[in-house]
Amino acid sequence: MTKVGYFCTAGHTELGGLNAFLTKINPRLKWVRCFPTKIKEAPKLNRNYPEFPAEQEGRTGNKLVNEMVKRIRAFAVHRQFDLLLLIDDLDCRFNGSELTRENNFDSIQQRVNEAAGEVVSFEVLYASPEVTVYHRLKAL
Prior knowledge:
There is one protein chain. Strand 1 (2-7), helix 1 (12-25) and strand 2 form a beta-alpha-beta unit. The protein contains four helices and four strands. The protein starts with a strand and ends with a helix. The chain has a four-stranded parallel beta sheet, sandwiched between helices. Helix 2 (62-75) runs parallel beside helix 3 (105-116). 33% of the residues lie in helices and 17% in strands. By secondary structure, the chain is α/β, with parallel strands linked by helices.
């Protein structure tokens, strides 16, 4: 089974349902969230949903790319997966970030490869507008 490690923002939609959404789209892949990371394990009886460190919220655009690159360097996550996937809702477009879908894939790929010290199988999926990534995920 192909293992895909994905990085996304810590929004309610991404945390609450993205893994189930990805699994429904392509159940042949093993989807593993690499970022954001949770403080507690899965919820138990009478316990709230897992909490995420406040500093992980709002990662989009270059902040999300920087977090991914940092984790590749520190933890060699690229060696645990067949594919790394960056899923960005592009909310960064509201704060003037320079990350755009048109011109950044090559530069992000280069940063990922440099952090890993090797060529890494990598994709970027922009969910703006939401759920436009369906056909690409289905084809993986």
